[in-house]
Structure formats: structure tokens, C-alpha cells
Amino acid sequence: MKKKKIYEGKIIGLDVYNLTVEGRKVRREMIKHPGAAAILAFDEKDRIILVRQHRFPHGYILEIPAGTLEKGESPKHCAIREIQEETGYKAKAMKHLITYYPSVGYNTEVIHCFLASGLTPVKMKLDTDEFITVKKMELPRLIKMIKSGKIIDSKTICAVMVYAAKKKLL
Questions:
Q1: Does residue 5 share a domain with residue 88?
Q2: Count of the separate structural domains present in the chain
Q3: Most exposed of 15, 74, 98, 139 (fewest Cβ within 10 Å)?
């Protein structure tokens, strides 16, 4: 297998691989990503904490809070950090919900989804390139938005639907 680095950015990189699969030479382009943690969190009134965030090229979308893993950071620590930074809440407990690969075949990104509980307010710490508004929504309404295609974010869809399935709400 031969690898050529094409690009290395702040979050992603792009490598081209020349390899042999079942006796045939093939070329594969692979986006390298460090992974992310996403958080499904409920407030004291059992509403889900969401963020309305600008996501180029789609504009503003509604999603659960999430963030990219820093070098050497565990997914759980990333989830604890990101919920505080993006929503202004600190979680007493952070429980693993599901891990999935959103784009197999050309991307190494893995998303670790967590369920946060015991929220208490703290100060938000947004990065300078983040434009976020916190929103709260009841689970049935969010499921309806997912089913109608109004929610387009894969981590939100996966976390909410896995949670609902585990609770036998679907």
C-alpha cells in the first residue's frame, strides 16, 4: 500500500492510497478526521438541549451539541467539555449511547454519542468561529422533525433515534 498526503488542514487531512484489493490495483481517497463527541442532553423539564449553529454550506441548522476530539482527548472528556462550551450546561453524568461512522468508504471520522444528565448552568465558552443559539425541544417534536426531514444532521438523527428505540418510544 502506498500513501500520498494531499492536504493537511486544521481539522481534516486528505490522503490518496494506492493498494491492492482481491488482486486488483485500486486508488482510494481518504479524508482523515480525529473523530467527535456528540451529546444528547435533557434539561430539568425533560426537553432536549439543541444548538442552532451555522454549518457551511447549509446555513443554520438545528443539532445536538458536539465537537471534535482534541489530540489525546477521550470521547467522554470531549463530550463533557463541549456541552459546557456550546450550551452553558455542565453534566453530572455522561453515559455512552452509540458510536458510529457517518461516512464509511472515504472518511475516518467516528462519532461517539453520549447521554448527559444532571445538568446545571455554567458559562458558555464559544470558539471565535462558532455562531450558536441554544434551543430546547420536547422529544416527540424532535422525532417528528427527524421523520419529516427538517433535521438533517446525522449525529442528531442517530442519537435521538437510538435513544427513542432503547426507551421503546418508536
A1: no
A2: 2
A3: 74
Q: Residues 44, 85: one domain?
A: yes
> Cα 49 vs. chain centroid, distance in angstroms?
14
Residues 154 and 170: their CA atoms lie apart, in Å, by 18
User: What's the pLDDT score for residue 126?
Assistant: 84
Q: Does 61 have pLDDT greater than 80? A: yes
Grid coordinates belonging to 35: 473523530
Average pLDDT over every residue of 106-131: 93
Write phi, then psi, for 100 (nearest 5 degrees). -150, 165
Together in a domain, 19 and 87: no
User: What strand order describes the sheet that includes 47-55?
Assistant: 59-63, 47-55, 132-138
**Pairing outcome for strands 2-8 and 132-138:** unpaired
